[in-house]
Amino acid sequence: MLGRLGAQAWDDLEWLTESELYTYFDEAAKQLARSGVFVDEDSTVTLSAGESQYTTPAGWISSVRVSGAQGVLRPASTFELEALDSAWETAQGPPYRYSMDAGPLGTVTLYPQPTANQQHETLTHVYHRFPPDVSTAQTAVPVPEPVADYFAYFALQRARGKESEGAMPEMAAHFAERVQMYEQILASYWGEQE
Amino acid sequence: MTTSSLQAAVWNLLDDDGTYYPAANVLGALNEAQRFFCLLTLCLEMTSSFPLTAGTAFYHMLPVFPDWLLPRRVLNSAGQRLRPGRLNVLDALYPNWTNSPGTPKRYAHLGFDLLAICQQPTENDVMLVTYAQAPAPLENPTDVPEIRENSHFALPNYAAYALRQPEGGQEFRKFLGYFNDFLDEAQAVQMLVKAKNVDAGYERPPFELERMDRSRLVAWGKRP
Fold it and tell me: Fewer C-beta within 10 Å: chain B N or C terminus?
């Protein structure tokens, strides 16, 4: 990146710091994540009798599929659960629906509540996620190799666009076009499809 | 063309001998050029065996294939092709497919590298995966780019454009035409890859470069 910024060492750059650059990389990762390219699967949650709310996996953005031992659970809003069963909050049985808005943000609510028969069954969650935060201490992001250049162009766009002695508004505009082009490519190959 | 001849071609375009554009920077720009070319065209592919763990439905591909881009064709250990699908299709076909022992018949690809396999073998097994591949980086003077030789000329064009980015202004503008030439070559190769994809029954075509509006991307520049 230093060469791309017209420098050979960080000391040559008075208008940009290394940690600032990593902030741009992190911002790029977060923006990329919103297009649904980071998908993960989690099977670490086990059901407990009488417990309907479970914490979503770390970095969770949205759910693609939730399933239990009996198979896939259908998504439902709180309104749909209320229409389905006026006592939905206390109903018990093998879960066959899940709701992302019935509980606090970051929890998934199962309907009906699992009973002792479902105790210790695994909840499998396929979900869109944010990657781990990018910083000088955590530089790796799990992406295909050519996607690394997206991060470079995103950071160049930010670096050349900010008010500083290194500002190049015309180059920032060009880098923004390159970022947009990458986003179109990445969405067509790996974007949200489910 | 070898890496050293490509570097010479870049210096020739930039009217330099390595004084202003060091060899390491030129090499970095050539590698970026090849990565971007492969991303646009999906022109490289690799077939390799992938280990399956008994009873496991989901796999991340990047830890096993670091050069992974996209799946092109997946065969089970009996040589039968797995049909691509989405999770809702798998749910419709097999109500509890994540816990469904059997010979793998279908797969779904999600995000960068998550592959869901339906059904799951009862013992550890392998499948044969053909995937669109990222190129190996050029490192030594005798290394030859993996993309077809007819397209090698596009790499110095892109590298010269990339190396002029820190300068900006007129110095950069003069080289936007070379970037446009690079995209023209990538578009031509895309047509070949698309034709092959149709014949091979591959799931996902290359990015539609011909439908992309390049005007704002290269509008400044005209090839010198």
Answer: C
d(CA B144, CA B156): 13
Task: Tell me the C-alpha distance between B49 and B47, whole Å.
Answer: 7
| CB of B96 less than 8 A from some CB of A | yes
From CA B112, how far away is CA B145, in angstroms rounded? 24
Joined together, the tokens standing for residue A29 give 């990762």
CA atoms within 13 A on the CB side of B47: 6
pTM recorded for the entire structure = 0.93
Looking at chain A, list the stretches that DSSP marks H as alpha helix, in order from N- to C-terminal side: 18-33, 78-84, 148-161, 169-190
Question: Is A64 in contact with A40 (CB distance < 8 Å)?
Answer: no
Q: Assess whether the previous peptide bond of B119 is cis (omega < 30° from 0).
A: yes
How big is the A-B interface in CB pairs under 8 Å?
Answer: 114
Contact status, residue A38 vs residue A132, Cβ threshold 8 Å: no
Cα distances (Å, whole numbers) of residue B23 to B11, B30, B143, B154: 9, 10, 14, 18
β-pairing, B45-52 with B125-133? antiparallel
Instruction: Map tokens 């090499």 to a residue.
Output: B27
CA distance B106 to B117: 6
Chain segment B129-183, per-residue pLDDT in tens = 999 999 999 999 999 999 999 999 999 999 999 999 999 988 899 999 999 999 9
A112 preceded by a cis bond (ω within 30 of 0): yes
Q: In degrees rounded to 5, what are phi and psi of residue A32?
A: -60, -40
The CA-based angle A99-A102-A104, given to 5 degrees, is 110
3-state secondary structure of B189: helix
- Which is it for strands A97-99 and A53-55: parallel, antiparallel or unpaired? unpaired
Per residue in A86-139, pLDDT (tens digit) is 999 999 999 999 999 999 999 999 999 999 999 999 999 999 999 999 988 888
For residue A4, the distance in angstroms to the closest alpha carbon of chain B comes to 6
Structural element, H or E, at residue B38? helix B23-41
CA distance A78 to A73: 15
Tokens of A153: 């162009």
Which chain A residue is nearest to residue B72, measuring alpha carbons?
A: A189
What's the complex ipTM?
A: 0.93
Query: How is residue B73 annotated by DSSP?
Result: E
